[in-house]
Write a structure and sequence with these properties.
alpha+beta
């Protein structure tokens, strides 16, 4: 079970992120690019690599992931925070950050945090 405080803790540990308010809820950016936000109580919006990944997540775990018409055509998925644990939340947020971080920032991050082999 994850919360807004978990999101905040994970995102703020990533380089060059900042928190703002969007539509009355917390939202985070990497540099000036939108990263993630709370859409409504208990629901987080994250970027995914493409719509194939989005629909695969929704189909495989509809209790955790869903979408609404507003995000049609966008590689973004909605996450039910109470349904994901902290480890899964961290994976989603780091991946979203990786997709939106500037290339030089991502390269510096990867130099310090090499991906696991395989």
């Amino acid at each position: 079970m994850s919360s807004v405080e978990d999101v905040r803790r994970i995102v703020e540990a990533l380089p060059e992120t900042s928190e703002k308010v969007s539509w009355g809820f917390p939202a985070w950016h990497v540099k000036k690019t939108f990263l993630t936000r709370i859409r409504e109580e208990g629901v987080l919006v994250v970027h995914v690599s493409d719509e194939g990944e989005k629909f695969a997540l929704i189909e495989s775990e509809p209790d955790k992931f869903f979408t609404v018409a507003h995000y049609d055509g966008y590689p973004m998925v909605l996450v039910r925070l109470p349904a994901v644990d902290a480890g899964e939340l961290e994976e989603l947020l780091v991946e979203s950050w990786r997709l939106k971080a500037p290339k030089r920032l991502l390269a510096a991050y990867d130099a310090e945090h090499p991906p696991p082999p395989g």
